[in-house]
Amino acid sequence: MTEEIRWGVVGPGRIAEQVVKDFAHVDGARAVAVASRSLHRAQAFAGRHGIGRSHGSYAEILADPDVDVLYIATPHPQHHAVSLGAIRAGKALLVEKSFTATVAGATEVVEAARTSGVFAMEAMWTRFQPAVVRARELIAEGAIGDVRSVQADLGVSRAFDPTDRLFAKELGGGALLDLGVYVVSFAQMLLGDPDTVTATGSLFETGVDAEASLLLGYADGRSATLMTSLRNALPGQARVFGTAGWIDVLPRFHHPQTIVLHQVGADAEEITLPQLGGGYSHELIEATECLRAGRTESTVMPLADTLAVQSVLEQAAGQLGVTFAEDPAAL
After folding, report:
1. Annotated catalytic residue, options 21, 91, 97, 169
2. CATH architecture of the region 130-274
3. Is this entry keyworded Oxidoreductase (predicted)?
4. What's the rounded Cα separation, in Å, for the pair 309 and 122?
């Protein structure tokens, strides 16, 4: 690695517009290139964010020798092909959630990264939020005893538009891959991989899931009850129940500033820990520090967890009658 970690952005869409602003808070890292299938779009993004080079195809940024790591923010089904191309090019990866559109696609990317010794991580910013980090510390310290159950919900009310990515099946639309990944990842982070997945919900006319409720079951009786929706707004709160108390993660739990610790026999304790910048800086710092240290995986967001979450999402979608496919022509 060079002294400065040089980042490239693949897919200058809505999320990338927000993430790239947080490079200002990451020491020794800089966005130096951006790629889109539209050169004009790449150039416009670069101009807005002071990025030096613009590429009119994903293949061009993979071949750019002055890029060390790629932040991939294309639609979900394109992550697979672009990630594999990046790994072949020896470039490290930070891949937006959901990691891919399918378990098979995620498995192939993970195996390729591990075989090649290339760093890869899912951009699940929730795990790096200071308030969530503190909640995990409290749980590890035994502040609420043994964790027995997790509740989480995340939903927005979106007017149905079949031309929007969120509602297009070929672009990996639907609530599960876009919002459900947060509630599932949060539960998996605290409870581990579930033994059973039970889902119910409804579909939009384009064949993607509009809403879903999930029950994750564990052989020892632990459970997670999760909700996600594009049909109606949900509070966006999470609650972690233990044998000696519980922790509320206040809305919106996937990038919270405040948690409330409730211990049996004690007054509630409110803990507020703001994010740095827009909150994306923490995952960028993690990836940058891993690269500097020569690590190929993050211990906070390991690839095994990504695969477990992808499996839950695929099982839930399948029970609703939804299947997704990777886009082999993404490059």
Report:
1. 97
2. 2-Layer Sandwich (3.30)
3. yes
4. 11
